[in-house]
Structure formats: C-alpha cells, structure tokens
C-alpha cells in the first residue's frame, strides 16, 4: 500500500496485515479486525493453532480489501484531498490490543466541460425553416450542456449567459458523469431539461 494513490470510484485497495508473536509466550485467542475493510481473511498457507493460538516466533498474514467511494474522493480540505487512513487491530488473551495503520493518497481531478448551441425559432416555437432571424418575432433558442468530466462531485456551479435578458444565473449541483442540460431563450425563460445518471450523455 505504501505510496499508493487512488483516483477512481470502485478501485480496490488491498492491505496486507502481518502479525508475529515476538514475545516468549504462546499467544491465544488471537482476534484481528479492520473496521475500514470490506473483506478480511487469513491468507492461504497460514494457520492458527488451537484456540486461535500463535506460537513464539510464528507469523500469520491476513489480506483486507476496501473499495473506494465517491465520498472519499470528494473528501477534501483547504490543502486538497484527505488521505485514506486505514487502521487494523490485533488482540490476544495475553496482550493489549495492538494497531497499525496504512495511508493511501487520493487524487482529485475536477473538470468541467460546457457546450452551447443555438437555433432560430418562430413565434410559435417551431424551428425556422431557413435558420435565419428575419422578423422581430423570431428568437434564438440556446441549449447549454454542462458536463462533469472529472472524478470529483462539483457543487456551487453558476451558469450564466449574457444573451439571456435579466438574471439568468442558476446554481447547480450534480454528480460525476451526470449532465445538466439547460435551455435558455431570448425571452428570458430558463428551463432545466433533466439530469442523467452516472456517465450519462444528452
């Protein structure tokens, strides 16, 4: 795990937990826990004695895994991402509980793409046949697509368009891969068309 970096939801971090009896007494009742792990298992080739015992000088190795979540990638402070710190614990009848941690860094890459297109419509809202503004009842209907192409949830987004009369700003919050498609027209109307799921496309 040392030096590892994660940047994608669903990545699996694999941890190796090594426990050694470095005292002068057989340890019994060995219990290993890792609250952060999705799975925890004793590796093949290793075995505990009766009563979950570990003889002097013996070692057992466990493997734990954790799947990275969107919340973990989004978890940032003023200095950037907070690393993922995982603590494993081992306890026996003869000892106090011992612990050790492993740290994996998180790389956030916030990205935003905006695309704007426009079409000419007649007073009845129908597309103009030749696509040209010819009368004072024609208007231009713009479609603005905003897409989160990074790996971090974006919030507090402000979308404005100088071609729309009045205050056209909208505050939007959307998840990675989702697209908010907003339609603006010169008559000042603002309509949010919809929201698609992860990695959706309009």
Order of helices and strands: EEEEEHEEEEEEEEEE
What proportion of the residues form beta strands (DSSP E)? over 45%
> What is the molecular shape?
rod-shaped
- The strand order across the widest sheet is 1-9-8-3
Oligomer: single chain
Strand elements, count: 15
Q: What radius of gyration results from the CA coordinates?
A: 28 Å
Q: Compute the separation of the termini in Å.
A: 39 Å
pLDDT averaged over residues = 81
Number of helices: 1
- Biggest sheet descriptor: 4 strands, mixed
What does this structure look like?
- A 4-stranded mixed sheet has the order 1-9-8-3, with no helix packed on it.
- The radius of gyration is 28 Å and the shape is rod-shaped.
- The protein is built from 1 helix and 15 strands, in the order E-E-E-E-E-H-E-E-E-E-E-E-E-E-E-E.
- It is an all-beta fold.
- The model is unreliable at 184-202 (pLDDT under 50).
- The longest helix is centred in the middle third of the chain and has 5 residues, at 70-74.
- Strand 8 and strand 9 form a beta hairpin.
């Amino acid at each position: 795990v040392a030096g590892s970096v994660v940047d994608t939801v669903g990545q699996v971090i694999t941890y190796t937990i090594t426990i050694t009896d470095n005292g002068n007494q057989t340890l019994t009742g060995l219990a290993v826990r890792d609250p952060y792990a999705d799975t925890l298992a004793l590796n093949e080739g290793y075995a505990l004695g009766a009563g979950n015992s570990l003889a002097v000088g013996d070692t057992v190795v466990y493997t734990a895994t954790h799947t990275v979540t969107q919340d973990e990638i989004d978890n940032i402070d003023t200095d950037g991402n907070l690393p993922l710190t995982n603590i494993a614990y081992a306890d026996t009848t003869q000892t106090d509980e011992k612990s050790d941690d492993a740290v994996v860094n998180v790389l956030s890459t916030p990205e935003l793409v905006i695309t704007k297109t426009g079409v000419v419509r007649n007073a009845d809202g129908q597309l103009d046949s030749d696509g040209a503004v010819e009368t004072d009842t024609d208007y231009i209907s713009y479609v603005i697509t905003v897409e989160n192409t990074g790996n971090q949830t974006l919030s507090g987004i402000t979308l404005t368009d100088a071609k729309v009369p009045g205050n056209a700003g909208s505050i939007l919050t959307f998840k990675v891969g989702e697209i908010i498609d907003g339609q603006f027209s010169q008559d000042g109307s603002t309509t949010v068309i919809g929201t698609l799921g992860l990695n959706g496309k309009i």
